[in-house]
Amino acid sequence: DGVTVTELRDLAVRLATAAGALVREGRPERVEVAATKSSEVDPVTVMDRASEDLLREMIAAERPDDAVLGEEGDDLPGTSGLTWVLDPIDGTVNYLYGVASWAVSVAVVAGPPEPASWTVLAGCVHSVADGRTWSAGLGEGATRDGVPVHVGAPASLSTSLVGTGFGYDAGRRREQAAVLARVLPEIRDIRRLGSAAIDLCLLADGSLDLYYERGLNPWDMAAGVVVATEAGAVVTGLRGRPAGNAMTVAGPAGLVGQLARILEEVDADGAGGVDHG
Ligand code: IPD
C-alpha cells in the first residue's frame, strides 16, 4: 500500500510510547499484591493484556490490513503481507519487582512472522522506567532518543561484557547454567538484565559487547533485531543457522563468531553437533 519504512518506524514509536505510558501508570505498588505471573488474573497479566489491547486497537485504526502476532493475544491474520510483532511488557519480572529494565517492544515484519523467514522493516523498544527509546528502520540506521547508535568495538572476547537471559523452565535452566559455566571464564563478565529486547538495544549502542540467548520468542526479539543489525551487529544462530528460538547470538562481526564457536562446542542450541546417544 505504498507505506514507507519511515512511516512504519514512526508508528512503531507511537505505539510503544502509548502502551508504555499505560503500563507505567498501572504498575502495582507492592510485589505482595502483584503475586507472580502464574495466575490468569494477577496484575502483571492484567497490564500485559491492557498494553497489548491498546497496541492492537491503534494498529486496527491505522493499519487495518496488517496482521498481528502478540505475546498475549490470538494471532490476527492480515492481507497486506505485513505483521506487527508485539511484546506488551518484555521483562515482566523486572516490572513486577520495580527493577528499571522492562520495555514495550513493537516491530513490523514482512513475510512469515518467524525469525528464520521474516524481514524486520522497523522496530521500537521503549524502556519505560527510564524513558529511553531505541528505534530502527531497515536501511535507515538505529537511534536511541533520536541519536544514531553503533555497536562497540571490543578488542577481544576476554574484554567483552556479554548479556544473556534464561527461560522459565527448570530443565532448560540447568542446560543454560552449564553453557554459562563454559562461557563465563572466557569473557569480561556477564549481565542478566531481564529484558531480551533491551539487551539487544544495549548491544546496539555499545553498552553490551555481545549477547546470546536460547529460547527467545519472536516478540522478544523482533524489534531488538532490527535495532541491533541497523547499528552494525551481526545477529545469527549457531552453525550457520539463522537467529531464532534455538539460539540468538549478536555482536560485532569480529567477535560474534568466537562466541558462537564456544556455544557450538557445548551444543548450546540443543540442535545437534553433539551425540547425546
Ligand atoms: C523474557 C525476557 C527475558 C528473557 C526471557 C523472555 P518476558 O520476556 O525477555 O530477558 O530472558 O527469555 O521470555 O517474559 O518478560 O516478556
Automatic annotation (TrEMBL):
Keyword annotations from UniProtKB, A to Z: Hydrolase, Magnesium, Metal-binding
Broad EC category: hydrolase
Gene3D superfamilies: 3.40.190.80, Fructose-1,6-Bisphosphatase, subunit A, domain 1
Co-factor requirement: Mg(2+)
Transport keyword on record: no
A GO term, aspect molecular function: hydrolase activity
Catalytic activity, EC: 3.1.3.25
UniProt keyword Ribonucleoprotein, yes or no: no
CDD domains listed in its UniProt record: IMPase
UniProt cross-references to SUPFAM superfamilies, sorted A to Z: Carbohydrate phosphatase
Catalysed transformations (reactions): a myo-inositol phosphate + H2O = myo-inositol + phosphate
Superkingdom of source: Bacteria
Entries under Pfam families matching the protein: Inositol_P (PF00459)
PROSITE patterns according to UniProt: IMP_1, IMP_2
Family that this chain belongs to: Belongs to the inositol monophosphatase superfamily.
Protein name: Inositol-1-monophosphatase
Organism encoding this protein: Promicromonospora kroppenstedtii
